[in-house]
Amino acid sequence: GNFPTDLYIAQGIAAFADGVEMRAMPREAVVEAINEEVAVAMLTHVHYKSAARWDMAGVTERIHAAGALALWDLSHSAGAIEVDLGGCGADLAVGCGYKYLNGGPGAPAYMFVAGRLQRDLRSPLSGWMGHGAAFDFSDEYQPAPGIERFLCGTPPVLGITALEVGVDLALEADIRTAAAKSARLWDLFATQVEARLQGYGFELISPRDARARGSHISYAHPEGYRIMQALIARGVIGDFRDPDVLRFGLTPLYLGFEDVWRAVEILHEVMRDGAWRDEPARMAGRVT
Predict the structure, then answer these.
(1) What is the model's pTM?
(2) SS3 of 78, please?
């Protein structure tokens, strides 16, 4: 259930580092597989397709009991649901800035390293901005004493500036209130789909329990790709994930209940009128 990018990075590390092995397994088997042989357990907090959410506190405790470090991907969590890395005792975290933090496409990523680990952990990318005295232009690399040691090259200033605005706006809102609104938006979407789209072949694949999910809602449908293209053409911007998943992001800071109501209304029109049949079958492309 990890986002593939995380797996690619881990595979690259394993390929270069002697004695390191990356093990991937079905989601339901992961926790039981964490034992004394595991150094780092890397998990995506909210599943990128289904929105299923791990119990971060409970799983982190299990990881630590085995003597491993807990690394969480927060890309589909931060800015929409409550995340308490310190309270959970998480060791490491990463995430992207372009989703619920509203940095826009190409926004910088971010990382978290628990304070107790910052002195001892070193990045394999020992770049200039991570140097303890970058503008001394020393030939020898000496890592900065804290979190700055994980910087590498010059940060993308324009991207960070845009992301900073998104983060500042998110900080103005109480995350508990935002998470509660997210849950209500989700419930409205699901209720309307059940009321308006019975018999059209949609299968809900996201957990119904708000405590067990993130802030998107996903359905499986054999014609998911063509249906999503028809929705996008009508201004309802979701996305498609192989093999058959339609995913709708519910951003609580600015998405309204009327928006959700209208989105399901348009989905109903697309199915009722058969408008999805006018869309071409899946074409090769980098973005779905």
Answers:
(1) 0.93
(2) coil
